[in-house]
């Protein structure tokens, strides 16, 4: 089939595509992300950390121990570091969750396309001496825990922050949606959250060492 013939089928199917998009936007997407939020909120509560899980309405998930909160009075709502949900493209650059509507699409969560969904250990560099992203990344690559974190599944992004991807099984998710047991298809998210918890002491050391390396007294 030529490209033009294939494209003509798209034109003929636009009404179906619009119906699918509307159903996803109004029903399917909210249902799935509501269950994801529940999984993350359970993680926050079990960790005794603080954070937010509101994917669909705010495109937001972040979590951090309260002691990572910045000490500066004027920045009382800021954190030195945190873990958050990210979309990452094939060049290891973070995509804004609100731009291009990525937060409203399942493709990255299902491993479809070049964009990966995952969790990031993210640092506000102004609290570790304001190094450039390239210097922060170089520091991470030379850190004593680099190999250990890499074996767990973390990679460094262009920003220097650490990212670990996850992927949901599309068939399992589709079947779970039918039976109303969406949570049964979310085990990869549970697993990656556990990896965050298991790696937390390593990231604490990375954070502490970075402040010393960049001669920082803030945070």
What is the CA-based Rg, rounded?
A: 20 Å
Structural class: alpha+beta
Q: Return residue spans where pLDDT drops below 50 for at least 5 consecutive residues.
A: none
**H and E order:** HHEHEEEEHHEEHH
Kindly estimate the percentage of residues that lie in beta strands according to DSSP.
Answer: 15-25%
User: End-to-end span in angstroms?
Assistant: 60 Å
Total count of strands: 7
What's the number of domains? 1
Envelope shape: globular
Number of alpha- plus pi-helical segments: 7
- What's the story with the biggest beta sheet? 7 strands, antiparallel
Helix content: 40-55%
Task: Please state the oligomeric state of the protein chains shown.
Answer: single chain
Features:
219 residues, globular, 7 strands, seven-stranded antiparallel beta sheet
Q: Your description of this structure?
A:
With 219 residues, the protein is α+β, with helices and mostly antiparallel strands. It has one domain (34-213). The chain is 47% helix and 16% strand. Strands 1, 2, 3, 4, 5, 6 and 7 form a seven-stranded antiparallel beta sheet that branches. A hairpin with a 5-residue loop joins strand 6 and strand 7. It is globular. The protein starts with a helix and ends in a 6-residue tail after the last helix. 26% of the residues are buried. The mean pLDDT is 88.
């Amino acid at each position: 089939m030529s490209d033009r013939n294939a494209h003509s089928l798209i034109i003929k199917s636009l009404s179906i595509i619009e119906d699918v998009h509307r159903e996803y936007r109004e029903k399917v997407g909210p249902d799935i992300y509501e269950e994801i939020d529940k999984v993350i909120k359970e993680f926050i509560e079990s960790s005794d950390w603080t954070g937010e899980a509101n994917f669909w309405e705010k495109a937001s998930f972040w979590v951090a121990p309260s002691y990572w909160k910045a000490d500066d009075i004027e920045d009382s709502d800021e954190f030195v570091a945190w873990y958050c949900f990210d979309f990452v493209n094939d060049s290891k650059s973070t995509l804004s969750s609100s731009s291009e509507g990525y937060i409203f699409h399942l493709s990255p969560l299902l491993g479809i396309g070049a964009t990966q969904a995952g969790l990031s250990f993210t640092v506000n560099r102004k609290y570790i001496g304001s190094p450039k992203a390239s210097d922060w990344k170089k520091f991470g690559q030379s850190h004593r825990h680099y190999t250990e974190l890499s074996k767990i599944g973390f990679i460094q992004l262009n920003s220097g922050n650490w990212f670990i991807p996850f992927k949901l099984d599309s068939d399992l998710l589709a079947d779970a949606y039918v039976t109303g047991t969406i949570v049964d298809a979310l085990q990869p998210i549970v697993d990656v959250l556990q990896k965050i918890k298991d790696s937390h002491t390593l990231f604490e050391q990375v954070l502490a060492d970075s402040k010393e390396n960049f001669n920082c007294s803030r945070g």
